[in-house]
Amino acid sequence: MLRLAIFLGLLAAPAFGDTVIAARTIRAQELIGPLDVKLAESDVDGAYADLEAVIGTEARVALYAGRPVRSGEVGPPALIERNQLVGLIYQAGGLTIVAEGRALGRAGVGEYLKVMNLESRQTISGYVRDDGVVLVGTSATTLFTN
Q: Phi and psi dihedrals of 15, rounded to 5?
């Protein structure tokens, strides 16, 4: 009977994994380095469990010391700043249209960004390439979402 009680007690104990926590308070838009985060033994839903997934990213919101770093709170470093002039490329089949636009937000490589076309004054959306150009249209959606 004692063995059964010990066995059941072991089953009831939670199994903790590693969770990435902020080692210090990190301001929004700040790059995260190896000394800014550490692992803690806990299991938090939606939090990162791998330091490498967080190091080198940018904080999207303030990250407070000792609290878990959750997905959505960090992302790729911003390549485009709000109000920055950016190139726009639309491609469909053999047709390519190149235009200039103004960024309506901040975004990093592969992120979705709203841009105002300076010629037509229309707001369009696309995905940021690694060279800072924004791909718009159905070809961009296929390229970045698959």
A: -95, 115
Contact 61, 28 (CB under 8 A): yes
Structure-token pair, residue 6: 């010990």
Domain at 59, CATH number: 3.90.1210.10
Q: What is the pLDDT of residues 83-113, one digit of tens each?
A: 999 999 998 888 999 999 999 999 999 999 9
Helix residue ranges per DSSP H, 38-137? none
Domain that holds residue 66: 2-75
> pLDDT (tens digit, 9 = 90+) per residue, 52-75?
999 999 999 999 999 999 999 999
27 backbone dihedrals φ, ψ, rounded to 5°: -75, 155
Please tell me whether residues 67 and 130 are part of one structural domain: no
Task: Provide the number of structural domains found in the chain.
Answer: 2
Q: Do 38 and 87 belong to one domain?
A: no
Its pTM stands at 0.69
Instruction: Fill in the DSSP letter of residue 26.
Output: B
Q: Which of 71, 75, 73 is nearest to 58 (CA)?
A: 75
